[in-house]
Write a structure and sequence with these properties.
The protein is α/β, with parallel strands linked by helices. Among the domains are: about 120 residues, Methylthiotransferase, N-terminal domain (Rossmann fold, 3-Layer(aba) Sandwich); about 140 residues, Transcription Regulator spoIIAA (2-Layer Sandwich); about 40 residues. Strands 2-1-3-4-5-6 form a six-stranded parallel sheet, with helices on both faces. Strands 7-8-11-12 form a four-stranded mixed sheet, with helices on both faces. Strands 18-17-16-19 form a four-stranded antiparallel sheet, with no helix packed on it. Strand 16 and strand 17 form a beta hairpin. The N and C termini lie far apart (about 50 Å).
Length: about 425
């Protein structure tokens, strides 16, 4: 009988795409996939380390596996594995720790270990990680997450991602197009472009076009960037929708906004990290913009696309954030024409500049501020949705049947729940909100 493997993702959409690719690698090597709550021979946890909760959740999952399948091999990979391999190896039940350079070599590593051996750590200095490995999610999801960029050259004072993923690097435009065409051939309707710093997409040194290659896989110029990529993707047949997962405000150019406003394939939906509405805190965070720039970006988007959905990341409780600083963020977000919030409670991360900053905001104050902004985010989403009640918009319904119901999203990212209809699965339906 073939060995079985169960996989679990902590963290971002990019992690989800990588977990899917790891799963396909193992299936190609003869493994059969199982749900994570089932008994399997191997469990793979792809970790995040943006917050303490991700670390704690990893430990909790390992304990759960130990109770359910004590003879199973447990593999930990992802950002937490790169940052703290020895700490993970010390968790009872962990058999293999794979850092950033080794996660896609998992099949080979599994052949070299057995249960009961000392925990094997396969890590490296993050400065030695230069390769880009493409990945994408694909199972029963209608929306596919496609990684086109990895790593980050920014030095935000709170962030461990450059230490966990290395320097910014990207796929080539012709490889991205080839992957998109392959995804389209499998019937997917929507692709979400993902990366650690997506707007920093920069193709590697161009290569010459081979005779007989399709015209859209042509040589790229060294000046090309994320704007070049989305223009190329807009011409690809077979995919009806593209979304931009998250893009820094200083990299979201007027050209990109104008292009999306005129595109039939790129959806009117932006997710733009803010982190703080206080210029003082933005400076301490070492962000590369001030709130004035953020206001300009939101204003231009709403001028060109009044119906556009805008999501915002924000961190509360950063060192030095006073009540006045927090209220400045609250008031700033309240007056902005945005659609929803992703609110994060600041947590100290070893090795970051912010970890030593004072004064520290008490944890109960952090949690209270998080609650206040989450409530504001709920209000913003309700306000955005209410503006579109009565409109007819295009909804792409996903395949899952959840208790005789199904879900889908409008072009501008309003979630629609409807009675299950098999004819709507993975199809775009005109829907009155």
């Amino acid at each position: 009988m073939n060995k079985t493997v169960a996989l679990h993702t902590l963290g971002c959409k990019l992690n989800f795409s990588e977990t899917s690719s790891i799963g396909r690698l193992l299936e190609n090597d003869g493994f059969e996939k199982r749900n994570f709550d089932e008994v399997a021979d191997v469990y793979v946890i792809n970790t995040c380390s943006v917050t303490d909760n991700a670390d704690k959740e990893c430990r909790m999952l390992v304990r759960r596996i130990q109770r359910k399948a004590p003879e199973a091999l447990v593999v930990i990979t992802g950002c937490y594995a790169q940052l703290k391999p020895a700490e993970i190896a010390a968790i009872p039940g962990v058999d293999l720790v794979l850092g950033a350079a080794e996660k896609f070599n998992i099949a080979q590593h599994l052949k070299e270990i057995t249960k009961g051996d000392s925990t094997k750590i396969c890590s490296c200095d993050i400065e030695d990680v230069h390769e880009f490995t493409a990945s994408h999610s694909i199972n029963d999801r209608t929306r596919i997450f496609l990684k086109v960029q990895d790593g980050c050259d920014y030095s935000c004072s709170f962030c461990t991602i450059p230490m966990a993923r290395g320097k910014s690097r990207s796929d080539s435009i012709h490889n991205v197009i080839a992957n998109v065409e392959a995804i389209a051939a499998q019937g997917a309707k929507e692709i979400v472009l993902t990366g650690i710093n997506l707007g920093d997409f920069s193709p590697p040194t161009p290569r010459a076009q081979h005779p007989g290659e399709r015209g859209n896989l042509r040589q790229v110029s060294e000046s090309e960037n994320f704007f070049s990529l989305i223009k190329e993707l807009d011409q690809v047949e077979g995919i009806e929708r593209f979304r931009i997962s998250s893009i820094e405000p200083n990299l979201l150019t007027n050209d990109i906004i104008e292009f999306v406003s005129n595109s039939k394939k790129f959806m009117p939906h932006f997710h733009i990290p803010l982190q703080s509405g206080s210029d003082k805190i933005l400076g301490l965070m070492r962000r590369r913009y001030k709130r004035e720039l953020y206001t300009e970006r939101v204003g231009l988007i709403k001028t060109m696309m009044p119906h556009c959905c805008i999501g915002v990341d924000v961190i509360v409780g950063f060192p030095g954030e006073t009540d006045e600083d927090f209220m400045e963020t609250y008031d700033f977000l309240q007056q902005l024409d945005i659609s929803y919030l992703h609110v994060f409670t600041y947590s100290e991360r070893t090795g970051t500049l912010a970890a030593g900053m004072k004064p520290v905001v008490p944890m109960n104050t952090r949690h209270n501020r998080n609650k206040i902004l989450r409530n504001l985010g709920y209000q913003k989403m309700q306000q955005f949705t209410n503006k579109h009640i009565g409109e007819t918009r295009k909804v792409l319904f996903e395949s899952k049947n959840k208790n005789s119901m199904m879900e889908g999203f409008t072009d501008n990212y309003i979630k629609i729940t409807a009675p299950y209809n098999a004819a709507w699965e993975n199809n775009i339906v005109e829907w009155k909100i």
